[in-house]
Amino acid sequence: MVAAAAALALALAALPLAASAETVLGVYIFHRHGDRTAKSTPPTYLTALGAEQVHASGAYYRGRYVAANATSRIQALSPDVAVLSQLAVTAPVDSVLQNSASVFAQGLYPPAGDAARQTLADGTVAEAPLGGYQYVPVNGIATAASSASSEDSEWLQGGSGCGNAVVSSNAYFASRQYLDTLAGTADFYRRLLPVVNRTFSESQLSFKNGYTIFDLINVARIHNSTIQSADLVTDDVFHQLATRADQHEWGLAFNASEPVRAIAGSVLAAQVLQTLNATLQAPATRAATTRMGIQFGAYGTFMAFFGLAQLPAVSDDFTGVCGYASSMVFELVTNATTATTDAASPVDPADVSVRFLFSNGSASAGHEPVAYPLFGRRETLLPWKTFADEMSKFAVGDTLDWCKACGNTTGVCAAAAAAGGSGSGAGSASASGSDGEGMSRPVAGVIGALVTLAVILGIEALVMLVGGLRLVKKSVAARGKAAEAGHA
After folding, report:
1. Which domain holds residue 160?
2. Contact present, 428 and 436 (Cβ < 8 Å)
3. Has residue 343 got a pLDDT over 70?
4. Where is the signal peptide (predicted)?
């Protein structure tokens, strides 16, 4: 979790967040859901606190980018009534993530009041219900793996569809770091049996289930006025639970020597490039252009992207699980006067820059997102060409490239191979701002959904056998029998 001290120290060293003449052309926001019930006690659902968290975040981003008096108002974006062609809001087909996205959208565009009234041909006035409630659609992507609530499930990478990512993540369970931690924390976890014995058996209490054990206790500390054997969960014990959960999930989400393990971050990078590139190519004042890309997904995707973008070099805190309602933002900005004076032409990509910001937990006026440098650099404002070139080094936005990286040959990969795709458009956005040869939006959506589900559904624990590692099918989440990784 990103510490405030580290954020402040970095902010002092960073360039100013905005120049006085700066114009925001568009943004891409990747957001985690709000507070939810525990994974190990299904059905998992978004709580009232969670809804409050994501709504507050939506309201903050309204004040930053959307409202008429927004501090960093997006060029040509409708301030009060949502214009659906300007927004792209997506989330996996899942009650927690989709509901979070819907509530966030209501913070971004609250009921429009009088602006939602319409005068009909006969002179009567029609008033939209609920004070002009705005119906901002959340585009859910259904897959076979999402037929049941993915927030109830603890089986992660098996639903991703990326075979090599599954193998790479599973290899963590054979690593020396994992095995040493498993042995060294055995007594620590066993001592917690009186706290969690209604959900976990003694044999299940180990670092193998480090995240699900932490998750259960964390939810209880937030919502339960009393916890059985609460005296065993001191602040120091809880800190170790959180630290071990971070270690467990980071090991499953990223490995510098095996980039495919972070396939979720690679696909996200391509989606960011594709969306910002489309915004960049349109005239700066064109009202029908997508100005805000908003995607809700799992914390495992945050971790995967953090690793690929070299953010742990900024702070080790970027190797931890981010808090509920966390968000990262990519701002597309310019100081060029053509952004406001030439409505017919796109802004020259040479005049455009990108800024990355992150909020660990719900963004608010008292907890604003902080700008961080990407790719091992010092500056927080990168020229578009530099940003696109660096992102393209690990972005996977071409169907054949995804299939090759994942080792997949069936389904969408068989179709792509038959179509004879080029397999060369990794980022699907060139540094100059021209169209790339990337995948179509429907295919990108399918792959994005598969990868997002990967970080929602969890990693299956491995059983150590003489012949090597063997995947074991997970039993129901209520019995908490498997290690969880990369959950939302």
Report:
1. 1-112+128-488
2. yes
3. no
4. 1-21
Q: 90 in helix, strand or coil?
A: strand
CATH of the domain at 168: 3.40.50.1240
pLDDT at 338: 52
Task: For residue 326, count other CB atoms closer than 10 A to its CB.
Answer: 25
Cα angle for residues 450, 288, 24 (degrees, 5° grid):
80
In a domain, 245, yes or no: yes
In 298-421, which ranges are E strands? 327-334, 352-359, 370-371, 381-383
Amino acid residing at 186: A
305 in Cβ contact with 265 (< 8 Å): yes
* Tokens of residue 204, six digits: 């299940």
Assess if residue 122 is contained within a domain: no
Q: For 297, list phi and psi in degrees, rounded to 5.
A: -160, -165
At 380, is the pLDDT very low, low, confident or very high (cuts 50, 70, 90)?
Answer: very high
Cβ neighbours of residue 42 closer than 8 Å, sequence gap 6 or more: 149, 152, 476, 477, 478
What string of DSSP letters covers 463-474? EEETTEEEE---
Question: pLDDT digits over 47-101, tens only?
Answer: 999 999 999 999 999 999 999 999 999 999 999 999 999 999 999 888 899 999 9
What span, in angstroms and rounded, lies between the C-alpha atoms of 201 and 307? Answer: 34
Indicate whether 16 belongs to any domain. yes
SS3 303: helix
Tell me, rounded to whole angstroms, the distance of Cα 202 from its chain centroid.
33
Which residues have C-beta within 8 Å of that of residue 349, sequence separation ≥ 6? 280, 384, 385, 431, 432, 433
For residue 282, the model assigns a pLDDT of 84
Enter the tokens of residue 111: 């009921």
Contacts of 243 (CB under 8 A, 6+ apart): none
Tokens of 400: 């054949």
The count of domains in the chain is 1
Q: Work out the burial of residue 91: count CB atoms within 10 Å of its CB; fewer than 13 is exposed, 13-18 middle, 19 or more buried.
A: buried
Domain for residue 150, yes or no?
A: yes
Put simply, whether the predicted model's pTM sits higher than 0.85 gets the answer no
Give the phi and the psi of residue 328 in degrees, each rounded to 5: -125, 145
Q: Which of 227, 219, 336 is nearest to 285 (CA)?
A: 336
Rounded Cα distance between 264 and 266, Å, is 5
| DSSP 8-class letter at 121 | T
| pLDDT tens digits for range 17-36 | 444 479 999 999 999 999 99
CB-based contact 333:22 (threshold 8 Å) = yes
